Amino acid sequence: MWRLMFAICCIFVLNQMGLVDSDTLMIPIFRQKSPREAALNSKDMHKLGIHLDWLRKHHHHNSTGNDSIALFRFLDMEFYGKVLIGQKGQAFNMLFDTAWQTSWVISNDCSWTTIGCWFHNKYDHTGSSTYVANGTKFISPEGSYNLTGYYSNDTFSIAHSRVNGQMFVEMTSVPYTYIFSKADGVMGLGIKTGKIDPFFYNMLRNGTIKQPLFSVYLSRDRQSQRGGNILLGFIDKKHIHRVPVPNSNKTIPDTITYLPVEGGSGYWQFHMDRIVLDMPSQNKSFPFCLHGCSTIADTTNNIILGPQQDINAIHTLIKAKPLLFGRSRVPCDTINKLPPIDFVLAGKNFTLKGPQYIQKMSYGSVTLCLSSFVSSSVPTEQNIWILGGAFLSQFYSIYDIGNNRIGFVRAASV
Ligand SMILES: *[C@@H]1O[C@H](CO)[C@@H](O)[C@H](O)[C@H]1NC(C)=O
Ligand SMILES: *[C@@H]1O[C@H](CO)[C@@H](O)[C@H](O)[C@H]1NC(C)=O
Ligand SMILES: *[C@@H]1O[C@H](CO)[C@@H](O)[C@H](O)[C@H]1NC(C)=O
Ligand SMILES: *[C@@H]1O[C@H](CO)[C@@H](O)[C@H](O)[C@H]1NC(C)=O
Ligand SMILES: *[C@@H]1O[C@H](CO)[C@@H](O)[C@H](O)[C@H]1NC(C)=O
Ligand SMILES: *[C@@H]1O[C@H](CO)[C@@H](O)[C@H](O)[C@H]1NC(C)=O
Ligand SMILES: *[C@@H]1O[C@H](CO)[C@@H](O)[C@H](O)[C@H]1NC(C)=O
Ligand SMILES: *[C@@H]1O[C@H](CO)[C@@H](O)[C@H](O)[C@H]1NC(C)=O
Ligand SMILES: *[C@@H]1O[C@H](CO)[C@@H](O)[C@H](O)[C@H]1NC(C)=O
């Protein structure tokens, strides 16, 4: 039993991939997929009972969809979609990352001794007639995570859309923790700050999409493999919660709250007024981010990352106890009694209830209830909140590049 529990916890390390790291705030073009190596070495992995066969077995998924890209879910951790690269298209599972600009995929040139490349689809440019060599070296910030490769140029096809001449990175070395990831690479949906056009910008130039925006719907059904949709060029009203019109029997889609994108950092970064944890039973409420704080939307994982001091305070209030790898747990029978937490954006409440910010994970007979809140230990990030799937699955998000703004609206419950 303990072994199983440890196995689950170990996989939670996945969740940590995609967290920021202090270096990247200074080099915002690349958002480091920090795998938190410290928590895990191969000896530990063995000890913790991670079996590669088991991982492999859970690595089979299908794709459907149109310009709306079907997202799939891996262990309630990652959201990824299918992308074809080259001619004729080689298929990859890609994370659609709103907090990263550079698109990349594991290269066929990745040596077999690099464990992180195992069990992944690899891009082979010799098999693509549309490949154009570039070769400029890519080294992740500070080179500290062994994410290295070189730039190439090829065609990307997603659903019914196609972009020719996309610059991307072929990774020839990735950290070994990538064996825990279902994704073969990343589609960078960040905001352009550098010379290279991120994927969506090339797509816009092609003119095949209707509006200069994309939207992300993450499904709330955590049991389902379908993680949601990325909609390129449109907002699908069916994903928006409907509200009744007074004095009639009609309902209309709820209003989208838009916030200006700030910072010029390349992230979808915006201002949050504050966070309030309500404890009606004690006639009390506990505010965080009292003077406002910077917030980033992150579509690649499920957690909500915040300043250490605030997260510790929230965990004390909801009686969460530290588990492993920076995650905390609550007793499962308390989930429904936990206080609601309001994220106040542009003066409006975006409220998460207990079951929405607690991840209930089952593995065999073991069930764990993990807080989605994770604290950032990076000193430069102590006034930043990063809202991942726990938030984005309740609120359909709109990334409006044309108007330099980001929108949120309560998601329909289907
Ligand atoms: C996945 O695809 C295979 C073959 O194309 C099909 O047999 C299977 O039913 C599909 N699974 C899902 C979950 O759609
Ligand atoms: C997908 O998009 C194409 C072109 O925009 C359209 O003709 C087709 O009907 C769409 N298919 C579905 C299943 O929505
Ligand atoms: C690679 O791409 C960069 C950026 O577009 C360009 O400046 C450079 O000249 C290219 N190198 C080659 C060898 O094509
Ligand atoms: C990076 O690679 C080197 C040599 O391949 C290895 O010794 C080191 O442990 C790796 N570091 C990380 C953080 O993966
Ligand atoms: C633009 O999109 C169309 C349809 O998806 C595709 O056929 C065409 O090659 C694309 N052009 C460029 C320049 O990406
Ligand atoms: C990528 O290759 C295409 C030719 O297929 C070329 O038109 C385009 O300029 C290249 N893009 C970059 C950024 O070098
Ligand atoms: C709403 O529906 C009810 C029952 O169908 C009906 O009695 C009522 O008149 C309707 N109200 C309005 C404002 O249409
Ligand atoms: C909360 O406030 C209400 C009204 O002020 C009061 O009646 C109630 O006793 C208070 N409850 C607690 C737990 O303090
Ligand atoms: C947000 O909700 C709290 C209670 O949960 C309420 O006290 C507060 O007035 C609400 N704020 C707004 C702006 O609606």
Rg calc = 21 Å
Question: In CATH, what is the homologous superfamily of the largest domain?
Answer: Acid Proteases
Number of E-state strands: 28
Indicate the proportion of strand residues: 35-45%
Name the poorly predicted regions: 1-77
The CATH class label of the largest domain is Mainly Beta
Rounded mean pLDDT score: 76
Describe the main β-sheet briefly: 6 strands, mixed, barrel
Q: Which molecules are bound besides the chains? A: 2-acetamido-2-deoxy-beta-D-glucopyranose
Biggest sheet strand order reads: 2-3-8-4-7-6
Tell me the number of structural domains.
2
The CATH topology of the largest domain:
Cathepsin D, subunit A, domain 1
- Gross morphology is globular
Given the structure, what is the number of helices? 9
How much helical structure, as a percent, in the residues?
10-25%
Q: Note the gap between the termini.
A: 35 Å
Helix/strand/pairing class, anyone?
A: mainly beta
CATH architecture annotation name of the largest domain? Beta Barrel
